[in-house]
Amino acid sequence: MEKIKELRAKSTAELQEMEASLKKEALNLRFQQASGQLKNTARRRQIRRTVAKIKTVVAEQAAKKSA
Predict the structure, then answer these.
(1) Under a CB-based contact definition with an 8 Å cutoff, are residues 2 and 22 in contact?
(2) DSSP string covering 2-21, please?
(3) Which of 12, 18, 36, 42 has its CA 20 to 30 A from that of 57?
């Protein structure tokens, strides 16, 4: 789980790449949960929150560029 300061230090491209990989992982975890194979259910919540943090930082960076 990344801290917001660490995310702000990354470029927009890195953040978008990270978001895409987390979304793929979330999809896999959903399939595991549906089939009853998921061991760490808290990981889904961590991924969801990290994706939200990434989206926030990307929006901040976009606002900075337009201002």
Answers:
(1) no
(2) --HHHHHTS-HHHHHHHHHH
(3) 42
pLDDT band at 67; cut points 50, 70, 90: confident
- Domain architecture of the chain: domains with CATH: 4-66 (1.10.287.310)
Taking residues 46-60, report their average pLDDT: 96
User: In this structure, how many other beta carbons lie within 10 angstroms of the beta carbon of residue 22?
Assistant: 17
At which residue do the structure tokens 């470029």 appear?
11
Compute the distance between CA of residue 13 and CA of residue 11 in angstroms, rounded to an integer: 5
- The alpha carbon of residue 5 and the mean position of all alpha carbons in its chain are separated, in whole angstroms, by 14
